[in-house]
Model the fold of this input.
Amino acid sequence: MNYRHAYHAGNHTEVFKHPVLVMLLEHLRRKPKPFTVIDTHAGIGLYDLASIEAGKTGEAADGIARIIDADMSAASGYLDIVRGLNPDGLKVYPGSPALVRALLRDDDRLIACELHPDDVKLLRRTFRGDPRVAVHARDGYEAIGAFVPPPTRRGLVFIDPPYEARDEFERLADALNAGIAKWPTGIFAAWYPVKDRAGIDTLRRCYAPDNPPTLTCEFLRTPVDGETLAGGGLLICNPPYGLGAKLDALCQSLRKTLAPKTGAFALDWWIRER
Done:
């Protein structure tokens, strides 16, 4: 358990997956009934881009720093949140739980899980005093089985693991299959890295074919070479109607802004509406 997300906050994969997270939250907000978000690998919530960790990699320079002032209507909800936290220039980056909190209403709930002992302390500090947020020091995959379905019966499970373990894709597939079986009407969104296709092929092979409709979207900044992080993908079970068109528009904008010569994206329905 060596992974620390502070080294990667705001990088090129984050400015793909986090706008999609905001899209899903905006969909849930359209109805007055409350919803619950389960963030399985929450990190610390807010990231100081001037920290030692962020400075060592400088990854935000090729991610959020490139788009924060861009005219990107496809990511407007996400950018509004990031800009609101940075009125005097880009200094902090909101991780997934901070983005979720920004869109919670009074009766909505966030369950944020983090296993790293130092990070969970910072996460608790960030959300101290907010009755809508519960922070748990526990394994994110185990948390899915523990917390679904939530009492609200509406909501989202957001899964963004570190991919340190050799069997991470198998664990992800098992957790998704078990969680979806318990909560077949919930939205599940799982991020995965794209360095090569082996792990993704494993995920697809292990993903239950009788799961509800499932859409994947991948945005690649560079071609896949088996070594570097070319980009990332999102598997979305029970995607809201019209999400595919929004993903297409987002990826078009990201390619234009981040990688006009080398960028690529693809949408793929693993399981279509029956």
Remarks:
- The first helix runs from residue 14 to 28.
